[in-house]
Design brief:
It is elongated and about 95 Å long. Strands 13-14-6-5-12-15 form a 6-stranded antiparallel β-sheet, with no helix packed on it. By secondary structure, it is α+β, with helices and mostly antiparallel strands. About 30% of the residues lie in helices and about 25% in strands.
Amino acid sequence: MQSGYYDVTGGMVAQFNRLNVISNNLANLNTTAFKRDNVVIGDFKRIFQNMQDNMPINNNTKEAAKFINASVDRVPRITDQYTNFQQGSLKSTGNSLDFALKSKDAFFMVKTPHGIRLTKDGSFVLNNDGILTTKEGYPVLPKNYFKNSQYIKVPQDSPLVSDKSGNLYSNGNSLAQFYVATVDNLKSLKKDGDGLYKFPSLKNIEPSGKKDIIAQGFLETSNVNPVYEMVDLIETNRLVEMYQRAMSSQMNDLNSDAINKLASVRA
């Protein structure tokens, strides 16, 4: 069995997965408040060592077998994927229904058909009932939502004004206050499409105590750097080509060499 062929195949698959992540980052270069993703490439042995302490049984692999499995254990693969929550720059829009958050651990809270989610995309609109929602139609939650279950409703043909703390006013009257949520562990958040994030529990969420947290008439831009992504894209393509040449060498050159040598051996 040519173990080297499986090694390079595993490496190529890992680079294909990395290529998908890079392509998604580039596709969302102009998506409001998008956060870039990245991957960590390791090997099976590293994964096993990290998880060994939590396994119910001990590693009973015989010492001789460890040498046989050494090449398979070292096959490159995706060991982790994470989101970079670095703050993007703020872009002025002049739209009174656009809001940007000034902290990387701050999020708006919205109600979706699948439950409450977090978002950093503050490009809001008013629906037919005057309720402040996301562009997908998800109501934006006020700070007192869990007390009275009321949404943010703006009187018809009335301007909406927000101060830096997220207090909302219309015609000088107080309407509500944004529920600006902070997360104790950003790594616990999972992307859920449409710029939304799932979180483990409301116990991990609490209102932000910062007084200068919101900028009205601004939107946060994507934190994707196109130059870095293109460099990673070129590097990934070159690695795929390198693995492809190695696979070709394993299947063609080595097999041909082995066949010729075996054919020349006399009984």
